[in-house]
Amino acid sequence: MQGANMLLDEPVRLTSVLTPVKPKVFPSLTKIVGTLGPNSHSVEVIQECLTAGMAVARFDFSWMDATYHQETLNNLRKAAQNVNKLCPVMLDTLGPEIQVHNSTGGPIELKAGNHVTITPDISKAPSSEILPIKFGDLAKAVKKGDTLFIGQYLFTGSETTSSWLEVVETSGENVECLVTNTATLAGPMFTLHVSKAHVSLPTLSDYDKEVISTWGLHNSVDIISLSHTRSAEDVRELRSFLQSHDLQDTQIYAKVENTEGLDHFDEILQEADGVIISRGDLGIDLPPEDVFISQKTAIKKCNLAGKPVIITRVVDSMIDNLRPTRAEATDVANAVLDGTDGILLGAETHRGPYPVDAVSTVGRICAEAESVYNQLVHFKKLVKHVGDPMPHEESVASSAVRTAMKVKAAAIVVFTFSGRAARLVAKYKPPMPVLAVVFPREGSDPTKWRSYGTTQARQCFAARGVYPLMASTEEAETGGLTREEYGIKLAQNYGRSVGMLKPFDRLIIFQKIGDSSVVKIIECDSS
C-alpha cells in the first residue's frame, strides 16, 4: 500500500489509534453538505445539524415544490441565527433526467428474462410490459446492446428497487428491452438512466430556469449545483442565465455524473467555481472497477486548480441505520486522504431517520483522516505544479501556509472582500483552520441576507478548512479600532468561543494592504 498521503511512519499516531480520541469542539476541516428534507425540515433538527458540523444546506428540486423548500429555507435561517452561524444555500437542479411517472401508484414487477417496452406515449398506463416516458428521442439515442437502468436505486440505495435493461431493438419511437434482473419498481416516479449515450435534453431544463428565476432569485442562492454537467458550454449557459437574472454573484458547482462529463472534465473545471463528483450516477455509467480512479483523478485536478471538490454517496447505509458500514467509513476517510474538500449527504439527511448522527459521524471520520493527512506532500506537489516564477498572490498565500506550519500556528486569519484570498490559502490545504474575516463592500448592508460580503462569506464555507466571519466596518469605527485590530479581535473571540484557540496560540495574519500582501505572526491575547 502506498503511504504518500498518510503519516503512517509516526508511531505516536499508530499508537493513538488504540486510545480514546480527544473530542473536537469545532467541526472537521472537510466540509459537510446536508440535503434538507422531511426529516431535516424543522428549526430544531436543522439547528442540531449545523451544530454537528453541517456547513452547506442543499435543496434538491427534483423533490417537492418551491413552497415546501421555502418553508425549509425559512427554518434554516432561523436555525442559523440561533447558533450564530453562516450557512450557504445550494440549489440542486433537476437537469436532463428521463422519468417514468407511475400514475397508478402501484408496484411494478419486472422479472429477469421478460421484455419491457419503453415508449414516449404517456397515455399508456405503466406496467410490467410497458413504461411511458416524457422523452420522444430515446430510440434515436440508443442501439441494440446498450444498457438502461431504471428504478429508485439512486434514491433508496437498494438494487432490489431497480433493474438493468438491455436494449433488444428499436421500433419507431419505442425501445424494446430485456430485463436482466428481477426488481420491484415502487413509488410515484422512477428515473431512467441511459448508460454511455448522449441524451438530447438540455442540461439546464425549462423547469430549472423557472426555479432559479423565481425561488433562486427571491432567496439569492449562494451556489447552484448544475446536475448532469456534460460540457463547459453547460456552465457558460448557466452563468449567462444567472447574470441576466441579477444572480451574478451566485457560484456554479458542476455536478459531474456521466462519461460525457468526465470526457470534458478539464474544460468544465476551468469554467466552474467548484465540482461535485456524483458517484451515484457515475457508478451506473462506469464499470465498478473504474469509479475509484475517476474519483481520484478528478479530485487531484480540482486540488491543483484550487477549486473545491465534493463527493457524494458515501454512507448510503445511514439512510436506514445509525452507523455506517466499515467499508463506508473507510471510503469517507480515503476521500479525505485523496484531497476532497467536502462530503455531500443526500438521503441520509433528507429522509433518513438519523440526519444529525449522519452529519456528526461523517465529521468525526473526516477529522480522524485529517489528522494523518500528509499535508507536506500535497504542498510540495502544488508548489511544483504552480511553477516558477510563482504569481505574486500564489507566492504570498503559499508562504502564509508554509509559515503557519513552521511555527505550528493554531489558525490563519485572512482579511478578504470577495473570499478569493481565503480560498487561495485553502488551496494549499493547511492543517489548521482558515478564519476568513469578510468585510462588506462600501454601501453594502451586512445585516441583510443578500449583500456584497454576506454572500461571499457564506460561499467560503464550501472550501476546506475555511470558516468565514462577517465583519462590520461600523463596529470597528465605533470601538475606535482599525480594520486590522477589529478583524483580529473578531477572529480571536470566535476561535476561543468554539475551542479553536487558547491564550498564547500563534496566529498567521494574511491581508492585502494597497497593492501588497502582508503575512505576519502574532500571539493570541491572554484574556
Q: How would you describe this structure in keywords?
A:
alpha/beta, TIM Barrel, Pyruvate Kinase, Chain: A, domain 1, 3 domains, 8-stranded parallel beta barrel, 22 strands, elongated
Structure description:
Mean pLDDT is 89; it is low at 6-16. This protein is of the alpha/beta class. It is built from 20 helices and 22 strands. Strands 1-2-3-13-14-15-16-17 form an 8-stranded parallel barrel, surrounded by 8 helices. The protein folds into 3 domains: 29-95 and 205-372, Phosphoenolpyruvate-binding domains (TIM Barrel, Alpha-Beta Barrel); 98-194, M1 Pyruvate Kinase, Domain 3 (Beta Barrel), CATH 2.40.33; 376-524, Pyruvate kinase, C-terminal domain (Pyruvate Kinase, Chain: A, domain 1, 3-Layer(aba) Sandwich), CATH 3.40.1380.20. α2 runs parallel beside α14 (355-370), α7 runs parallel beside α9 and α9 packs parallel to α11 (288-305). 38% of the residues lie in helices and 22% in strands.
